[in-house]
Amino acid sequence: MADGNGLLQGKRLLITGVLTKGSIAYSVAERAQQEGAEVLLTGFGRTRRMTERAAARMPDPPDVLELDVNSPDDFDALVAELKQRWGGLDGALHAIAFAPGDALGGNFMSAPPESAEQAFRTSAYSFKALAEALAPLMDDGGSLVGMDFDASVAWPVYDWMGVAKAALESVSRYLARDLGERHVRVNLISAGPVETPAAQGIPGFDALAGLWGKQAPLDWDSADPVPVADAVLFLLSDLSRAVTGEILHVDGGFHAMGAPLKP
User: Apex CA 118: angle with CA 113 and CA 122, to 5°?
Assistant: First the structure.
């Protein structure tokens, strides 16, 4: 627990994307509590029970609110609940992405349009939907952070999720433009591969993660989400008060290298 002088002391934060203790969002929520923040989680449908089990393992188990980012009614209920509990909000983490199986794993050319559209709506448009719902609660400004995976190149097996991440990066820039007058910052964390429940759904993830052992100049532990979580905390904190429209790479330096450093 925080000692009263934490980085996020007094902040009210909404964290999406917690499925298990292995989720990056779990580490964000746990570390945020340690740094003095009040935290609420979201979950939906059948997976909400998984989120509740993960929440119960935190030092101060947070409540889990229902949120399907493709449901306008869920956003209305979420905003009403946040107003009743806190009266406002200081920040939120968007850690939500999904693409159907036929849009991943080498199926780029054969993926049907419906699957590409679902990947875009759930993984990119939802950041705008979340921002639209939450920004009015940030009377004194705030911070919105989204989880990204470098979309400047085409990755093996990532396919339409890669396209959705490219859209997410663009959405983030437009949100930064439109929400700046409210003093709401919008940034992304472009993380290296981390062994999360979401990653397990990507065919060939292990081979993709193996590239980091050859090219990242800093050691990269795909089993450790804490370095990524700590960068999220920076963007949620007042230390980042002049940072918006940014993509912060937390990948051991992989993105900056032109060729593998190690044979």
Answer: 155
For each of the domains in the chain, give its residue range(s) and CATH number, in order of start: 12-256 (3.40.50.720)
Helices 126-134 and 72-85 cross at an angle (nearest 10°) of 30
Whole-model pTM: value is 0.94
Unique residue bearing structure tokens 């929400």: 179
- For residue 206, what are its two tokens? 């292990």
- Is residue 158 part of the annotated active site? The answer reads yes
pLDDT band at 5 (very low <50, low <70, confident <90, very high): confident
Residue 189, SS3 per DSSP? strand
Whole-number Å distance between alpha carbons of 139 and 259: 46
From the list 21, 165, 174, 214, the catalytic residue is 165
Q: Which of 158, 174, 214, 262 is catalytic?
A: 158
Contacts of 100 (CB under 8 A, 6+ apart): 111, 115, 118, 119
Residues 6 or more apart whose CB falls under 8 angstroms from that of 71 comprise: 44
d(Cα 248, Cα 257) in Å, to the nearest integer? 16
pLDDT tens column, 201-229: 666 677 777 888 888 999 888 889 999 99
Residue 262 appears among annotated catalytic residues = no
Contact 251, 150 (CB under 8 A): yes
